[in-house]
Amino acid sequence: MKKIVYLHGLESKQGGEKVSFLAGVGTVNAPAMDYESLDLKEFILTLGMPDLIIGSSMGGYVADIIGSQLGVDVLLFNPALHGRRSVYQFNEDYGSQNYKRTIVLGTEDNVINPETTKKLWSVYGNHAKYDEVEGMGHRTPLDVFINMYNKHA
Predict the structure, then answer these.
(1) Max CA pair span of the chain
(2) Contact 79, 138 (CB under 8 A)
(3) Distance set, CA 74 to CA 37, 79, 130, 135, 143 (Å)
(4) What does the pLDDT look like over 27-84, one tens digit per residue?
(5) What is the DSSP string of 120-152?
(6) What is the C-alpha to C-alpha distance for residues 132 and 72, in angstroms, rounded to an integer?
(7) CB–CB of 153/52 below 8 Å?
(8) Per-domain residue ranges for the chain?
(9) Which CATH class is domain 2-152?
């Protein structure tokens, strides 16, 4: 059974329909995240070695760092790789591990601009597979989440 870590967004809460779905397809660890006081190095030690890390918004940013350090594939929904919340930048560098990065972007996201996300990764030479969802904003509806999981996980 697949071991999955799910990291919610900055203004979201632990649990919910997405975690319930994931619990039906694998063993899921979906901790309550306090991004303001998160010690990323300590947090990574608590994870063990998951098969997949899924993150949404700020959770996507953190999932991407962890995936790069552990060499674990990530599925990121509108990840906060840039944007208004720069106060939450962590001191940890991206690792050099090889991992698969899939980014799901809502074309109507007015919180984390999808075009800026794509440009950011092309400038730094970090290649990711992108999947754009027409009409989706920053929040990911459950049906889109399930479809993207089934397509990319």
Answers:
(1) 38
(2) no
(3) 23, 11, 12, 23, 19
(4) 999 999 998 888 888 898 898 899 999 999 999 989 998 998 899 999 999 998 876 5
(5) HHHHTT---EEEEETT--SSPPHHHHHHHHHHH
(6) 22
(7) yes
(8) 2-152
(9) alpha beta
User: Which three-class secondary structure state does DSSP give residue 29?
Assistant: strand
| Cα 89 to Cα 76: distance, rounded to the nearest angstrom | 17
What phi, psi does 118 have (nearest 5°)?
A: -65, -40
Distance CA 38, CA 36 (A): 6
pTM: 0.90
d(CA 40, CA 91): 9
Q: Could you give the CA distance from residue 60 to residue 58 in angstroms, rounded to a whole number? A: 5
Q: Are 20 and 41 in contact (CB under 8 A)?
A: no
